[in-house]
Specification:
Strand order of the largest sheet: 2-1-3-10-4-11
Distance between the termini: 64 Å
Number of strands: 11
Radius of gyration: 21 Å
Strand content: 15-25%
Shape: globular
Order of helices and strands: HEHEHEHEEEHHEHEHEEHHHEH
Helix content: 40-55%
Structural class: alpha/beta
């Protein structure tokens, strides 16, 4: 009897980590209205749970900085970051890796948009935007702040605070569009995917707001997996997460991002973002 109990205890200890693995949690930067994100990413959590064999939950956050903090504190083990927030998170948690990016994220871009009252038309050459009021998106946004600021300062040889009559931060891309459309700011910088998607859905009044410039391409959003995931969830777990993301083909799930598909990514892919962030003083 003692031998049987000993064997049973040993089996229980062996089986428990797989049977009772802790919840795997992910988050996403709030680049659009938060209420939309919950519905979108709960479906992604269900998909990942089925593929990974563990409970997966989506944890909403209030800001880009909060997403990075949640990753640093191990409140989330996976995150859909922008280029800059991913760099920031991986610097805070060494050994973490970018594992997948949207197909489109290999050649992402930003738009400068303007209220219809601004006498500027879309052109390949950089527009004369000096003296206008201007809004970025979130302070931590790659497409709504980092790269637009870099291209603006590169093309004008002027710091943004000296170039514009007033500079603001809307918080996310959809709010940037709304503020420029309403005339609260004359010009703004937005993620081209959000703009294009909102235009297709009829959520932008293009008689009131227009695109005046399109940036060169750069790497942007990516999935970053926290260091130590294999230790917590079992050998090979990180490879399973990556494969589950690459295998995501359901158009409804991909529309949550929105992306055509996911492709492999590495930390090296985001070295250009890190270099730009360092050059304009957003990273030490």
């Amino acid at each position: 009897m003692l031998l049987i109990k000993t064997i049973a205890l040993a089996l229980a200890v062996f089986i428990m980590p797989a049977a009772f693995a802790q919840t795997f949690t992910f988050t996403a930067i709030p680049d659009e209205d938060e209420t939309k994100l919950q519905t979108r990413f709960d479906k992604v959590a269900d998909y990942l749970s089925e593929k990974l064999g563990v409970e997966v939950k989506y944890m909403p956050v209030k800001s880009y900085a909060a997403a990075v903090t949640a990753f640093r504190n191990n409140q989330v083990q996976l995150a859909w970051f922008g280029g800059l927030s991913g760099v920031q998170a991986r610097r805070l948690v060494p050994g973490s890796h970018a594992i997948a990016q949207g197909y489109e994220d290999q050649f992402f871009k930003s738009y400068l948009i303007a209220n219809a009252s601004v006498p500027l038309a879309r052109a390949d050459s950089f527009p004369d935007i000096k003296g206008y009021t201007f809004t970025f998106g979130s302070k931590g946004s790659t497409s709504g702040r980092l790269m637009p600021q870099f291209y603006i300062e590169q093309n004008t040889q002027t710091k943004v605070d000296d170039l514009f009559s007033r500079v603001g931060f809307s918080g996310d891309h959809s709010r940037t569009i709304a503020q420029v459309e309403a005339g609260a700011y004359q010009i703004g910088a937005v993620n081209y995917k959000v703009w294009d998607d909102m235009v297709v859905k009829g959520q932008v009044d293009t008689s009131k707001v227009k695109v005046i410039w399109e940036s060169p391409v750069y790497p942007d959003y990516q999935w970053t997996l926290r260091a130590g995931s294999d230790d917590t969830y079992g050998a090979g777990f990180s490879a399973k997460v990556k494969q589950a993301l690459l295998d995501m083909t359901d158009p409804d799930l991909l529309a949550s991002f929105p992306r055509h598909s996911f492709v492999p990514a590495t930390n090296k892919d985001y070295e250009p973002v890190e270099s730009v962030a360092t050059a304009i003083g957003l990273l030490d």
